[in-house]
Amino acid sequence: MLRREWHRKGLLQQTPFFHRPLKERHTLKTCESQTACEDSNTGGWKCSQENCVSLWSIGEFGNLDSDGGFEGDHQLLCDIRHHGDVMDLQFFDQERIVAASSTGCVTVFLHHPNNQTLSVSQQWPTAHYHTGPGSPSYSSAPCTGIVCDNPEIVTVGEDGRINLFRVDHKEAVRTIDNADSSTLHAVTFLRTPEIVTVNSIGQLKIWDFRQQGSEPCQILSLTGDRVPLHCVDRHPDQQHVVATGGQDGMLSIWDVRQGTMPVSLLKAHEAEMWEVHFHPSNPDHLFTCSEDGSLWHWDASTNAPEKSSLFHQGGRSTFLSHSSNQASVHLSLVSSWLSTDPAKDRIEITSLLPSRTLSVNSLDVLGPCLVCGTDAESIYVTRQLFS
Amino acid sequence: MEELDCEPAVTWIPGVNSKKKQMCFDWGPGEMLLCETSFNKTDKSEKVPSCPFIYIIRKDVDVYSQILRKLFNESHGIFVGLQRLEEELSGKSRKAQLVRVSKNYRSVIRACMEEMHQVAIAAKDPASGRQFSSQVSILSAMELIWNLCEILFIEVAPAGPLLLHLLDWVRLHVCEVDSLSADVLGSDHPSKHESFWNLVTVLVLQGRLDEARQMLSKEADASPSSAGMCRVLGDLMRTMPILSPGNTQTLTELELKWQHWREECERHLQDNTFAANPHLESLCKIMLGDEATLLEQKELMSNWYHFLVTRLLYSNPTVKPTDLHLYAQSSLDMFLGGESSPEPLDNILMAAFEFDIHQVIKECSIALSNWWFVAHLTDLLDHCRLLQSHNLYFGSNMREFLLLEYASGLFAHHSLWQLGVDYFDYCPELGRVSLELHIERIPLNTEQKALKVLRICEQRQMTEQVGSICKILAMKAVRNNRLGSALSWSIRAKDAAFATLVSDRFLRDYCERGCFSDLDLIDNLGPAMMLSDRLTFLGKYREFHRLYGEKRFGDAASLLLSLMTSQIAPRSFWMTLLTDALPLLEQKQVIFSAEQTYELMRCLEDLASRRPECGEPDAQRLQDDDIETTKVEMLRLALARNLARAIIREGSLEGS
To answer: Where does the secretion signal sit in this chain (chain A) (predicted)?
Structure first.
């Protein structure tokens, strides 16, 4: 069932769904109207001259034909040139989009729904930069991750710097230089004003903007071999639960309240995990994508077996048990991601993409919709995640 | 060396003054750099300002087309699927699968063509509109050739079905009839439409007899005078025997029926059944395969291969594949009638009708502006086992040669290079070497890209390339003062020499600033510390500081001493270590034992005695020496005092 919804090439007469800019990263947002129409936003990944940030509409819910297929209701609304590769892309609010560039620039684009155009509303050209003997003043450093929480924007970069911007301020509100000795790969809010960053030596650092100085308030790390972490996401309801994905494709679940090591390590992809996302309204579901070209749906809600049977139709369906290295007992409100009883708790994994060739760089999920962008320069959309 | 098949094309580069003959150039992967030199050979005194530009000449411009990028991306998926299919395919399903793959390729070409067409229509300035239109016609020609190759080489249709395939081929590519049909049927009186008879004729020419009959019935309704004739001709159309896919009749039966039908047509013509209506008479002649009548409809057929297929349909419907080229050649000659010479497309199609695959590929390579078409077609035909015997006098076989050319073109592109990797993977002979050469030359502007490149190398055990990429990244990080990053990269590459270099930088920074940077990394080195002695020293020295900070003086002292005695610490750093020992020596309780103190003294004397003799003393030097001497004196004093305390303490402990 799931596979059929993937919007993709067909035989002779069908026009394949293609996408113009490269290596998309995107987020979803709900529109103002409560008709739950969705826009997916995509951006280019690669070199200078041809990148752009494009805004797509992927149509409304509920108008699928009898076959469950969709034809032609995704549509390019507008695009705008972007200097450098788009390293990360987030919706700031209903009409503003924040893009991180490989040139170290952070740009806020404003969408004008009336005439369907995008314009630059705010820009911090040198948010990330290197200072070194080789460069007279500074040389740009790629900005690798951003996270927005109106009105604040936090950015991290290869220069190990953390910036806190306010959308209406030209200058950074707070900058932590040398926050990390290695590259910071991703950032997310833990609970305002705390953020979590992951870096290329397998550490998870928690920062509190109320504290001065350039020291994190907590460092958690994977054991031993310093496998780089590439992505991080926080449980939408339980703010102490954090998921990260690493270079070896492992999914780690952390409880930041206790311990310095992950609660569970789950063997997942065969190569770098580029992005991990909890489902925003259904956090027992988690989605990951990887360099090996796979996109996985993790379902930890299998306490109700009759419900889980809905997911069996997908391709790969495996049961994994937690490998726990910490005996924590939470009697009340135990998150299904933290429970450590291997006999009882199982996570069901479904592979959402049929053929695996090139890397899936980015994904986002909202409601029953999931969007991902791949190195084959295409976007996949499914609108029936839970059917 | 073979002779050149055609003169290489001359590319004019606007802005270059070729008369001055001061060009220099350099090949890059898939592109060439060209610039004017500043050397002036006639007289050196007068410097003519040379052109300040460097020109980049790209071989595969099509790679940079936005729309064609989709062609490359989609066909990459099909290509990889085909290579994987190879392992599991056998026997009968094999052909069906290969035909399916071929159709997938064609569907991608078609999709691109449609999109390009839309863009061409929407284009605002006529120049770019023309450019897109010409791309559309190139894509359309590609699809035409591919389709024919699919019928002849992959499907290998036998006599009978062959003609049905060819008919489909012509119908697919000469498709103006559909719009004409809509136009005519949309009018109030279809049969009075000026193009009505053109439409009927085209339908008959394409063998769409059912539709032609419906048209005739409209004519019959409109003009009762010709109703009888229309009915007779309609019956002829209805009764024409054709091979239907599900039918079990043999070719001989079909031929027999067909002869009967033909005789009936001829009889009507001789009886002058249609004499009153020249249109109907001409249609009947067409159905008899009358060449003169067919050639009168040149305009409606628009090209010779349409003529060929129509001619075969009405004169030899069970044509054998082997006879095809005879008909093709004569059709071409008749159609052109000596008025014009065949174009490249005609030659390619002719070569296909002659079943000369190599000629098809060769002509396509010359005529088309990119390698996409020939590379994929050759690969597919190779999977049909049609190219085994052919070896080139250079490189390996033709399939591999073309794939390599195509993949090299992709590698020049900033984003499509990833597709090229898979093509190289499926070139058994030279693919690996080519990949190694190309992958090292990819510009690494972000770490994410670097990680992707590294993953590709690691999957293929290309250790040398992994090393060199990590080194590039480490070097870059050092240049940007990102020592932590640099160290991480050299650890990943297991590059001991570079790790030593970075560790030295760390130690130097420490000496200058008195504190360590990047503690999060150094404190977590773990087993990676063993990569180089200097790195081990760095880690251990930092450990010493931590122990000291935690006031574990005993452990700190023995660690410090072992760093010197085990020769891990570089000699240049000994003085710093000894200075670090000073506060430990001055603590209230005795930390260094007598034996340890002796060791320290030996180290100090060792260091002092080996001090290099300096050449010319200058003021700075003297001052430095002064500080050094003071330090040594202080150390000696502290050591002596500590030794005394240690001996007393040890003596009294033993005594008690």
So the answer is: none
B442: nearest CA partner in chain A: A47
Would the pLDDT of A33 be above 50?
no
State which of B4-8, B35-39, B63-67, B454-458 shows the largest mean pLDDT: B454-458
State how many domains chain B has. 4
Chain A, window 291-320: residues with a beta carbon less than 8 angstroms from a chain B beta carbon: 291
Domain carrying residue B595: 551-609+620-655
Higher pLDDT pick, B513 / B373: B373
Residue type, B88: E
Please state, in angstroms and rounded to a whole number, the distance separating the CA atoms of residues B297 and A11: 34
Give the confidence band of A133 by pLDDT, cuts at 50, 70, 90. Answer: low
Q: Tell me, yes or no, whether B506 and B640 share the same domain.
A: no
* Domain closes at, from B269, B286, B319: B319
One domain for residues B594 and B528: no
Write down the residue that tokens 């291969």 correspond to. B305
Per residue in A253-301, pLDDT (tens digit) is: 998 887 778 888 888 898 999 999 999 888 889 999 999 889 999 888 7
Amino acid (1-letter code) at residue B179: S
Examine the domain organization and report whether B176 and B313 are in the same domain.
yes
For residues B581 and B478, membership in a common domain is answered with no
The pLDDT mean for chain B works out to: 84
Q: Is residue B425 part of a domain?
A: no
Q: Is residue B598 scored above 60 in pLDDT?
A: yes
Strand A251-255 to strand A264-266: parallel, antiparallel, or no bridges (unpaired)? Answer: antiparallel
Please write the tens of the pLDDT for every residue from B233-276: 888 888 888 877 766 778 888 888 889 999 998 998 888 888 88
B482 contacts chain A (CB < 8 A) = yes
Q: With beta carbons under 8 A apart, name residues in chain A contacting B103.
A: 11-12
Residues with Cβ < 8 Å from A26, sequence gap 6 or more? A40, A41, A42, A43, A89, A362, A364, A371, A373, A379
Q: Which residues fall within 8 angstroms of residue B470, CB to CB, at 6 or more apart? A: B454, B489, B490, B492, B493, B495
Is B103 part of the contact surface with chain A (CB cutoff 8 Å)? yes
Residue that terminates a domain, selected from B16, B40, B59: B59
Does residue B517 belong to any structural domain of this protein?
A: yes
